[in-house]
Amino acid sequence: MKFAKTRPELFWSIVGAAVGAIAGFFIGGVGIAAGGGARGVSSLAVLIIFAAIAGLVGNRLGIAIGRRRAQKTD
Hints:
The chain has three helices and two strands, in the order H-H-E-E-H. The protein is α+β, with helices and mostly antiparallel strands. It has a domain at 42-74. The chain has a two-stranded antiparallel ribbon. Helix 2 (8-27) runs antiparallel to helix 3 (43-73).
């Protein structure tokens, strides 16, 4: 896969966001209780939050992989 080798940070960001979205889908909605009250968070919000966080983690992983490959070619 040529795209994964030329732009690892973008590739791993997409992979991370997809994995995070799948995890958020399976977790579904959650409830948050604090200070004597409670609120529910929708499934879509959980999916978006998980996708964003996992996308950031994937981006950092891709940057590390790209740097490691650059050091091997030097």
